[in-house]
Amino acid sequence: MAEEVRDLREQLIAKVQKIREAKIPILVLVEGWAAAGKGSLIKELISELDPRFFNVVSPAITPETEARYPFLYPYATAIPENGKIVFLDSGWMENCVRKILSHEITRPEYRRRVRQVNEFERQLRDAGYLVLKLFLDIDRKEQRERLTQLLEDPNTEWRVTEDDLWQQREYKRFQEGYQQFMQETEAAAPWHTLDGDKRKAAVSAALQLLVETMDHALQTGKYNGEPFAEEFPLRKMPKLAEVDLSPTIEDEEYRKELKKLQSRLSELHNIIYRKKIPVVICYEGWDAAGKGGNIRRVAYPLDPRGFDVMPIASPEPHELARQYLWRFWTRLPRSGHITIFDRTWYGRVMVERLEGFCTEKDWQRAYNEINEFERQLTDWGAVVLKFWIHIDQDTQLARFTDRQNTPEKQWKITEEDWRNREKWPQYEVAVDEMLQKTSTENAPWHIIESNDKKYARIRALKIIVKALEKACEEQIGREMEG
Questions:
Q1: Nearest 5°: CA angle at 189, between 183 and 195?
Q2: What would the pLDDT profile of 186-197 be if each residue is shown by its tens digit?
Q3: What is the architecture, at CATH level 2, of domain 240-481?
């Protein structure tokens, strides 16, 4: 057995080098029973690897993250860069099974989490990730003996928690829960059960699986998933060419409405903070459409400790090296906070599509992936508001010219803006398709007419205020029912 393990380790070291060169990211999820030896197994797997190219993450030890962020947040933010490996010491299986058995989540919430896990694993697979899922199994008697041994040693008793002892008492229920979860989450990445009663054999089997998984990927190349469309309830959206851009507002009415709406938004910010309602506001639109001015009027009445504005530029190298939604997962607000995105994940189906920064499969697949992502946010309880700030070509030209001819505004205009303007027809086709395919009932698009910037600001504020009032009323209603 020792010689077999040494040989597998040598193979693993060689495969990891090739995986780095092929830029294939690997996520290894190690689940299993308390005292089954998950930590020891990970230690054996990484013992000969270069520490610059792997990380070990224990998401289960972050209760604050679990309480303030979406269910998948600890795992989605931990995914590796291309060519690197992340080992997860317990993850979404333990989270789901333990919480449903302890009645911390309801059965419908459990079903949602299972669906989200399948979506997450499929999105990773389709983006070229290798997802290897290991379950370390031990029988009830063996677990009891190991827990007792740990408790009898003052140096190790701290490793046994009340949850571990509860799991031992409820072994049969946990066994059924684990088996059911594995059956329900096999679609994108299969589970591999290892015999934890035989530690050396488990190490050998895990090494063998890791080597075989890498070898298969190196032979077949980095996977790029096929697009498919799930049936989401969609709102019918007009084409941009059909939108009436004539609405305006008089200055006096604008000042009056702005003061009233900003005052109400300030009040609502206090309520959503107290009720722990997260808010995600997304701004997309034409260059010079007025996104920045619109965002400033929304942000002004907010408590600066409770919101962030995220300007999204071209991805940095470490962001390009991960699945494209990763850099948005890492920027989500905590519950009770607001994040305003100036440009969003929709770059995937606009600029990345038109400029050739991703494959056709990538951007076609993204409509469904984005709908899933936004549904996960609203399942969490977030208010998701999406604005397309719309102007016509003549208005854009006038604003471009004004920027170019006004010294203090010249920083706002670049050669790229002019190049993008030349592609207006192609962008309009892409935006129309985006609006049609991603204006879901839970996260609909709002086209904001912005030939008159002041009118656009008031319209956006009204939509935000109305949505937050509704969310607060619904939360209060749930509390009264509870």
A1: 65
A2: 999 999 999 999
A3: 3-Layer(aba) Sandwich (3.40)
